[in-house]
Amino acid sequence: MHPRVIALSFLPLVLMVALSFGLGYFFWESTVASVTAWLETYGFVQGALGWLDRVGMGALRAVFAPLLVLVLATPVIVVLSLLLVALFMTPAMVELVGQRRFPAMERKQGGSLIVSVLWSLGSMLLALVALLVSMPLWLVPPLVLIVPPLIWGWLTYRVFAFDALAVHASAPERKALMREHRGTLLLMGILSGYLGAAPSLIWASGAMLIALAPLLIPVAIWIYTLVFAFASLWFAHFALAALERLRATTAVEILEAVPQADPGRIDPPPDGPGTPPFLPPSTSSGS
What we know:
Mean pLDDT: 79
């Protein structure tokens, strides 16, 4: 709830809303018509729509195709919102966490901007492929509440864990931390994925909300943005604290590996030109 974080969240919001309305203006009607024609080729869909007509809910036939378009567009909106947060918000928020909590931490610049962008794009493509492949499972009621948040959580973990360590950790430190804390980071990503799935319940609340889509889409996108901003800050605090512990442990191990001098031991001076040979003190009383 820091004012700077709230202010930063408006840039991804503006970009996503502009993109959504631009695509909707040019492609909404043609997309809905294509989906309607595609649904008409499936007999079981027509049977379900006929059953709605018989029970007096024929009005839902008109909103079925638009609702399906919104459901299919939601994963793309979520992924793009996450990437925009990672690109425009995460560097500033990691800097904020570093200044306020870890001001003395050395910055080893283990991940450049290009590497971060490539890592995020590669993770995004893998997540989109997983979403497309798993869409048939969404027709099973329990799985639709499990599979998409798991995929979004995996993507959240991959993107935000990398970006949280990109500036402060070296490449070996980042790899070691992501390997050591993989389970915890993945759990954090999954929890963030479930929080990010919450706005999607808007479309399941009622078919009449389709008419309010122009107003609800910006609200849903801003919720996505704030959820991913929270996730980014969570990963930044956790990852930088883990990095601090790793460096403290490494420093202790280095000190323990250095041989310590024995204070009771007297080493003879090295022999060399002009150096008299070392003679032990005489024990004779007459010397």
